[in-house]
Amino acid sequence: MKTKIIAVLSFIFLFNSLNAQEQVKDSLISNQESSIQEVVIEGKKPLIRTKIDGLVYNVQSDPESKSKNLLEMMRKMPYLSVDADENILFKGNTNFKILINGKETQLLTNSPKDFLKSMPVNTIQNIEIITNPSSKYDAEGVSGLINIITAKKMKDGYNASVNLSSRFPKQENNAGFSMNLQRNKFGISVYGGGYLKNSPEISYQNSQYTVSNNLFQNGSTSGKGNGGYFNVNASYEIDSLNLLNIQLGSNIANNTAKDHFNSGFFQQNNLKENINSISNSDGNGKGFEASFNYQMGFRNDKSQLLTLSYRFNSYDYGINSVTDFQNRLNNMSNTINQNNDNQNNENTFQVDFVKNIKKVYLETGIKAILRKNSSQYTTVPESLLNSDEFSNQQNIYGAYVTTKFSFLEWNFQTGLRVESTVTNVNFTSTDTLVNQNYLNLIPNISISKTWKEHHGINFGFSQRIKRPGINRLNPFVNQSNPYIQVSGNPYLKPVINNDLMANYSYNHRISLNLGLGYSFSNKTDLKVSTYNPTTNITNTTYENSSNVSRLGLDYNLNYPVTKKLTFGVNGNAAFFFIKGKINNIEVENNLFTYYVYLSASYQFENHWNASSNLELNSRMPAGLQSTTNAFTGSSFSFSKSILNNQMSFSASVNNPFNTFRKAVTETIGTDFYQNNYVRDYYRSFSFNITYKFGKLRDEIKSTRRKIENNDLAN
């Protein structure tokens, strides 16, 4: 039997688990942690419980988990929301990190939407929403962390799950599977999936007004895409004190797009240039990751654990775009060919140590991330001066210490993290160097108290770092639109965000969570647009020129009206205060925003379930000068389970009252006004089938500490 298991070692992914000996060690380690109480909803199926650093959402206790994918489920989770483009927002912010069982995976960095749609929801047990991450986590992730916990208590044997879903008329087909095997000291598991997309043609319009010139553009765009992912993991328990974990993973993505637009440029109401263009682009990406974790216990002190970890990951992607112009009235070429090839890889080394010192739970560790990003971008004809080779070498060295203890019936979690960042940027063709070295001390504190079993309060303060990702640093200029051009900025610097928060929870028959938070940061790298009256081109890039603060209230209510009918509301209301300078002129973009997600679910006899949802989204800031328009959404779905809940079917209709959605982005500059409008498909129909089988009787092993490179966004 062992030979067979070793033979399929390449098909393994380890979810989270510990054996009996590990549980003995854990019980000693958790003696202190157990004093830090959790508030639990009473009832047959607890939905939410609060922790000192956030809360936990029990996915399997939600009836809608049988009819919705994981991305849709996040719309109803505290502090989370999903915008019209299916981007997840954490307290209204896109800067956060998603982990699986405490580990970062490349899948959730490069294509989180596709992964969350295809992963079988019945393999997910809990979602940890960490609003105030402790110092053991990397300092990146301004809003916090989302940790996806896969199903636990898997016993000796096997289990598997398959998920198929489809949505149209904007065609999306997703498939995902997971398989877990456990035998004696070996644990093996695997998950994978893929997607096919075919987006029908949609229309858009761009208009821009200046004192003397006007620009009007209209066009259409369509695209196709496909991709897949595969992760395999293995664990071997050498003995009661030593545990080995190995992970391998890969993913691919391919996309094509076709764009056709007409552009009319007017000076003093006279048509000066009329352009018709057709643009075809191809994008291809592939990634690989491997990690190694070795955990060692100590016989003389069962509370001690030492973990050694190494991780390598790489992701390469390239974009080729060919744009043909007609009816141009100047001497520029009628065809522009742009290529942008990117290579990204990193090596990570980490050592972690945990120990109980009397009644204090102590964690400490050191870490080094050696990261290299490069980009070769070319433009033909060369007269456009948009070709170069860009290299970004970034090394991050960190150390942390965090403690947990109780005092006078209050629970405390305190810590300090120090991170040193060394960055070297090189433009090969121009022999230009940019060096950025900085040291950050990142404090963290969380305080909580529970009383009368059902009431809990939390207070916290933390600082987080937002380092610019390769997409924002890359100076490649997209010139497919001759009047509106977009590029990155290699001179961007990191941003420090300060976050103060308070949370109240009541969890009994009714679950209520209220979170009040205030965050602020200076020299934030927001999107900035400037108009050049000489070339009549609007250039958009990122600059460290803005101060941003948010005062917000996040709320979540779950009310079981009857044993079969459940009502829920999730949302937030916030004031954004954004202030910066563009060409030494002060600009403000202050905005009140809100998000409301209402849900109702009814469980019929014979395992039928029906649910409906209503969503309200306000205008949102999209940079120093830009805002996006408000929108509403709705959905209706039903699901049915058969074969003793092993198979489930679901169907849903989203936004049945609106065939299309008008997505508008307004940008107001000091000397121009710009309006971008996209008419996208909004109404959709979807189907989902999930089948699970098998049984496990012993838990699969996993090291308690793993590499978590939660430090990069966009």
Structure in words:
With 714 residues, this protein is mostly beta strands. Helix content is 5%, strand content 65%. It has 6 helices and 37 strands. It has a 22-stranded antiparallel beta barrel. Strand 33 and strand 34 (647-654) form a beta hairpin. The radius of gyration is 26 Å and the shape is globular. The two termini are 45 Å apart. The model is unreliable at 1-43 and 710-714 (pLDDT under 50).
**Number of discrete helical segments:** 6
Distance between the termini: 45 Å
Q: What is the rounded Rg?
A: 26 Å
Mean residue pLDDT:
85
Uncertain spans, ≥5 residues at pLDDT below 50?
1-43, 710-714
Structural class from helices and strands?
Answer: mainly beta
Q: How many E strands? A: 37
Shape: globular
Q: How would you describe the oligomerization state of the chains in this entry?
A: single chain
How much strand content do the residues show?
A: over 45%
Helix content: under 10%
Major sheet, described briefly?
A: 22 strands, antiparallel, barrel
List keywords for this structure.
65% strand; mainly beta; disordered C terminus; six-stranded mixed sheet; 5% helix
Task: Write the topology of this structure.
Elements: H1 2-7, H2 20-33, E1 39-40, E2 48-51, E3 54-58, H3 70-73, E4 80-82, E5 88-90, E6 97-100, H4 107-110, H5 112-118, E7 124-130, E8 145-150, E9 157-168, E10 171-183, E11 186-209, E12 213-239, E13 242-267, E14 270-297, E15 305-326, E16 335-357, E17 360-380, E18 388-407, E19 410-427, E20 432-451, E21 455-466, H6 470-473, E22 477-478, E23 484-487, E24 495-507, E25 511-532, E26 537-560, E27 565-582, E28 585-588, E29 591-603, E30 608-617, E31 620-621, E32 626-628, E33 631-642, E34 647-654, E35 660-668, E36 673-681, E37 684-695
